[in-house]
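Run: sequence + PRP -> complex structure.
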Amino acid sequence: MGRNLIHLISQAEIVSTVRRLARELDRDYQDRSLVLVGILKGSFIFLADLVRELNIPIKNIEFMRLSSYGSSTVSSGKATIAMSPPAKAIAGKDIVVVEDIVDTGITTDTALRYLQNFQPASVKLCALLDKPARRQVSVQIDYLGFTVMDLFIVGYGIDFDQKYRQLPDIYYLEEKSHG
Ligand code: PRP
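>> structure
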C-alpha cells in the first residue's frame, strides 16, 4: 500500500516558530547557564536550528537516545534509555530537553524522569510539535512550537521507517486508496 505526503507546515512557518521559541528561552535563561539535551534521533534538525537562533550563551549540548519496544510500548508505557549524558553534565545544571514531537508522552516522560536522577537545578521541556490526541502519560511542555492533529507526521527530522527526516517542511502521511 502506498502513501501520499501531504504538506502541513512550511519551512517559513518553522523558521518563525523556532525564532519565537529561541526568544522565549533567551528571556527565561538570560542569567543562567543553559544545558540543552536533544532526544535522538528526531530532534537533531530542530536542535541545530534552535541553537543558531539563541542569543544567550549555551553552557553545553548533550544528547539522549531512548528505545521503545514497538507495540508493547502501548501496554508497558515504558521506553528504555539507550544513551544518556554523563551525570556530571546534568547535576546542578539548568536543563532544557529538546524534543521534535510529544505523542504518547512515554519517550519524553521517561527522559525527564531519568534526568531527575542526576539532580539538575531545573528541567524544562521544549517540543516543536505536540500531538495531544495520543497522549498516554501527562507531560508538561514549557516551550511549544505547534499543536498537531492525530496524523502521521514526517519531515524536519521526523521519520517513517527512517525515511523523510531530510525534508525541510513538515508533512503527514496519508494512505493511498486504490481503485
Ligand atoms: C519519536 C519522536 C519522539 C517520540 C515521541 O521518536 O522523535 O522522541 O517518538 O513519541 P511518544 O511521545 O509516543 O513517546 P522515535 O522513538 O520514533 O525515535 P527517533 O527519534 O529515533 O525517530
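>> summary
The chain has a mean pLDDT of 94. Residues 39-42, 68, 99-108, 159 surround PRP (CB under 6 Å).
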